[in-house]
Amino acid sequence: MPALLPLEGGKPTLPSVVFFHAEDEHVSYGRAALADYLAGYEGRLMRSLKSLLGTAMIDDHTEVGGRALPFRVLLAQFIGELKHRAEKAADQPFSRAVLGRPVFFVDDDPRADKKAENTLAEIAHAVGLKDIAFQYEPIAAAFDYESQIRREELVLVVDIGGGTSDFALVRLSPERAQKAERRDDILASGGVHIGGTDFDKYLSLASVMPTLGLGSRLVSGLEVPSAQYFNLATWHTINQVYSKKSWTQISDIRRGAVDKDKLDRLQNLVRERAGHWLAMQVEAAKITLSDAPEAVMDLGRIAPGETLTLHRPDFDGAISELVGTVSRTVLGLLKDAGVDPDAIDTVFFTGGSSGVPLLREQISALLPQARSVEGDRFGSIGAGLALDAVRKFG
Prior knowledge:
Elements: E1 17-21, E2 27-29, H1 30-38, E3 43-47, E4 61-64, E5 67-70, H2 71-90, E6 96-101, H3 110-126, E7 131-136, H4 137-146, E8 153-160, E9 165-172, E10 186-192, H5 196-208, H6 227-233, H7 244-255, H8 260-271, H9 275-289, E11 294-298, E12 307-311, H10 312-337, E13 346-350, H11 357-366, E14 371-374, H12 380-393
Parallel strand pairs: 6-7, 8-13, 13-14
Antiparallel strand pairs: 1-2, 1-3, 4-5, 8-9, 9-10, 11-12
């Protein structure tokens, strides 16, 4: 079975994070990028880069060090770094690759979805990959699970990633694994543009942003405008809050706010450029709430001495509509395939956000006869893509 290469600190993953240092123009990637940002270095942090695909932003640019940086170039830098590290770890060049992709980059828009895949292919070619194939990520995860079983199973793969929830209904067995063509074994695939960053966003809007003034009132009786809070709760728009225009708007809002203490926290956050720090606090709280009944967030950077305690019901309530959409997508997938829920042998959970309790409970309730199997949340897709690459390229 193909082994996953170490890409950072002995780990087989490189988080899609880039940090541009302001002082010496050095660029750091992955966990090192997050560490540099949290250490207080001046610079620009970019995260969740894959979520740019399929959006209008992919043809736009951002400002880094006073220069315009096209988002396409940003993605090329990251994929080029990923390729370089893989080649160094394997001590050989790579010119062919099977790239994982969500079932839908864009929901309900085939043309935009195809454009996103084409954009990714163009970027991959630009960094030196000559032969490229694509595979749906949940199907890649299915291939990884297949390498572990001894009999035929009808498996629903549930892949909950950072930006998408993807599903595949696949017949798997050791015998089927030997086939070069697996199209007939894939009964259905589908997905929805909901993932871990959305869980972060809605947890933040429901429980954290109100401490900065979201939902509070102006002396006029109107509610405080929400645009800045939505920007802060969304990874790829956080930097918009640091503009002069945003600062002026926030200052105007504070002057007319009833609860000025909350707007003071918001101003402190912008002044400290602590939006990504807060987003990481929210993400950490989400992870904690996936295993524990409560999580305590330290707000000291924007409100000295203050903490915020979040509880599991807060999290469940914040994401209930998102999880409901995911559940309906699973039911639709089974209906389209003409498969009764009781016919599913196994639910294979993978992806970084597949451990969210409410999501697992609802999907398990839909398939009461199926056993639940935990995959490698961050490695199953990569291992499956490697297996697929062996089939496709030898």
